[in-house]
Design a protein that fits this description.
Oligomer: single chain
Order of helices and strands: HHHHHHHHHHHHHHHHH
Largest sheet: none
CATH architecture of the largest domain: Up-down Bundle
Structural class: mainly alpha
Helix content: over 70%
Shape: globular
Length: 461
Amino acid sequence: MNRKLNLKLVLSIIATGLLSFCGVIIETATNITFPTLMKEFSVNTASIQWMTTGYLLVASIMMPLSAFLKKNFTSKKLFTTAAILFLIGLILDITATNFIQLVGGRVIQGVGAGIALPLMFNIILEQAPINKIGLLMGIGTLITAIAPAIGPTYGGLVVDVYGWREIFLFLMPVVILALILGLLSIHQSSKPTHSSLDVIGLIYVAATFVGTIIGFSNLSSIKETPFNFFVPIVIGIIALILFIRHSSRTNSPLLNLKIFKNKSFSLHLVAFFLIQIIALGISFILPNYIQLVNHQTALTAGLIVLPGAALGAVLAPLSGTIYDKLGARKPIMFGITLQIIAMFLFFIKGKNLTTLYILSIYILLMIGMGSVMGNTMTNALQQLDESQNADGNGMFNTVQQFAGAVGTALVSTVISLSQNVNNGLSYSAKTAVGAKNSFLMLLIFLIIACWSLNIVTKSHD
């Protein structure tokens, strides 16, 4: 196939990226509307979490399907379906008169985003010139990474000035623009091959994610209701074992697990999973710290973390260009080292983080993040045969969604446990202790990720 970097390829990446962007930005923007929604729809904290959990569940289940969908349907058909579903989800949320309709809209958006995100990376891997893959994967990472950065600020501004429905309404023109761009630019580079869907494998995958994501979402209340954590987790683990066993025995598995025999790919994936946990974990800790410990508003919290997150996202394509020219080791090890330094600084000052300290150290952390995330995924997929790219891409996108649920659950649990200790400290002081403990946990994860990436980049550069 003749790989050329032309306007159509760029527009197709932007189109699929915009749809993925909308899915992620709503996830972070609606988090700060939870108190308003709880009051309006008369639901409790556990129920309102389904706004995020429902979306994550469906998006996670769609990710392993991406390899099957890519092989059986044209990219344009998949994208059109994803965009239309997303629009339907937005309309349901804009017009919601009850909580079920509100969650239903988020679930349908999860289906659309779950199709769009792997499709963007599949288009890059299949159509981009080899010497531009790092740059374009960086642009793809930028589009999705900048969404969590501006989500809280966007949500806070819109809710303060207009109302929660406008969070969904203002994204409709973006989705319509993405749909038009996609219809004009997306083309098919390989003919679809019709294969049967591994329905049993899909059921096992769905049960794995339903069990583990629900289990982790209940982790913070493990002391009061341990069964709400352990029962779903056990169900999820059993389903995962059954899926692995089934996949080794069927001729057309939902995901080709043979890619895990590639040690380099597997270590890249482990590092990516841990770094994604850190990305979502830190985005939970800092806004809470700014509000509960430093007593600032939600909008202020969003504005403080915005420069670092935006800078990290913008630097992703630059680090991708460095990858194309110098290989994987230099940008990846530079980025992970910066992250370790930043997290160590967060840890040692964990109980007394000023606004200026948070702003500056978060910029350092996110520069490192921008240098690591896209390049780790790109380099991992380069270790596979071209025929395995769709499976590898599906695996990375699946892990990304799952890490989001795990990261938030782990840090919220650590902070909750500290807040509930009866040690005579004030609530804000106990929150600061919980944040410090969370920083230590994330620092350990970073060191493990660094060890994995050091092994794989040393052996391939």
